[in-house]
Amino acid sequence: MGLFFICVLLLISGYVIYGAIVEKIFDIRPDHKTPAITYMDGVDYMPLSPWRVFLIQFLNIAGLGPVFGAILGALYGPVCLFWIVLGSIFAGGVHDYLSGMISMCYRGRTLSYFVEIFLGKKFCVFFLFILIVLLLIVGSIFAKTPAMMLSNLIGMDFVWWLMIIFGYYFLATMLPIDKIVGKLYPFFAAALLLATVLLLGALIKGGYDFYPDLTTLNQNPNGKPIFPLMFITIACGALSGFHATQSPMMARCLTNEKYGRPIFYGAMILEGIVALVWATLSIAFFHGTGGLNEALGAGGNAGKVVSLISEGLLGNGGKILTVTSIVLLAITSGDTALRSARLSLADFFKIKQQKIVNRLMLSVVIFACAMVLAFIDLNKIWLYFGWTNQMLATIMLWIGALYLKRKGHFYYISLIPAMFMSAVCGTYFGYSELMLRQDLNVSVIIGLVLTALVTVGFFVFSKKHR
Predict the structure, then answer these.
(1) Chain segment 170-184, per-residue pLDDT in tens
(2) Regarding the domain delimited by 2-8+35-382, which CATH topology (the fold level of the hierarchy) does it fall under?
(3) Which end of the chain is least crowded, N or C, by CB within 10 Å?
(4) 0.90 exceeded by the pTM?
(5) What's the burial of 463, exposed, middle or buried (CB within 10 Å: 0-12/13-18/19+)?
(6) What residues does each domain of the chain span?
């Protein structure tokens, strides 16, 4: 139990100490007018109170990642806690802070715009295509998963639940951000945090051994290597490229740059704490990684594990609260994924979103594609999501390093995690059965060579484009 609370304390200390260092390096401008004020349009640019923006940001970035990802990552044993802590402080927090703050410096623009100004128009077109496909898949999967969970929990046909969720998606994407998102999301976030606290309390009260076999060695029952797999499996609880698509939305709602650290960096730290709780629950409740592996089954059903843990610790009522909060997690991240797709296309094609007809034009196309995907088996495509998501995070970290270097700031806070994640993604590309299927040692060499090439390219490129 002591290790868990040490990890929580480290995360909080990381926010207080390292978060302040990152903020100082970025050199905020508290007297500068933010996009929410300068470009207020009553739709996407809308001043909101800091506490409301924080809860919305937290819910937007969380999704199923800090729950399902942490459960699957717990198969590696307590070592996963170190990635959650170090990743959240030195990679995820930096990534989310830079993606939000750089957006504020460029009129609240989306990630594809950063790619265009820092890496060029041609790469931006390719990147935008991949980004939109990724967001459509997220929106589709995050509609299907809660629809299935609700169908199992409450009844009613899966298709009906799917239509209801997509109907909600459409309204949330089309309406001004202060209507549904601004009013409901803080309460949804509160429900998730309540369920998390209750589960942790029940685990402590039940006298469970948090980490039955406390060691930093790999405990994966299937013999899968920690590097690079664990760093791909646990994404949203430590570092996730999806967050870079969400932070610009809140960058359009902040009234002062001084709120950037508590909202962008702080929400990532809170998500790290949620991931810590679920990784710990998964190991403790099943008395080790062997029991967790059996509970997951051959298909790695994390949703089943959530139901078993919540019902076992809190009873049927607790199960309903927990499953409902996780359903809300998925739905809220799904609708903001599609909202982000609308904003990304609007930025690229320079379509102003104040008029409802312009929002409708983009939304109809986006939702038509997402609904088609919802009735297609995406399981094989989804297998590539983890790697693509971390590649997205890596690109954002490289962009953050470029931005800081051009500004004459200490860019290593972004460069070092960018290099590490380049090695992770490169190694995974070589090792994964979905890709090159090489020996782990060969894959590590591939990852290191790719990292070296990208790093050299970074310095050459940044020198040419000062």
Answers:
(1) 888 888 888 888 888
(2) Amino acid/polyamine transporter I (1.20.1740)
(3) C
(4) yes
(5) exposed
(6) 2-8+35-382, 385-466
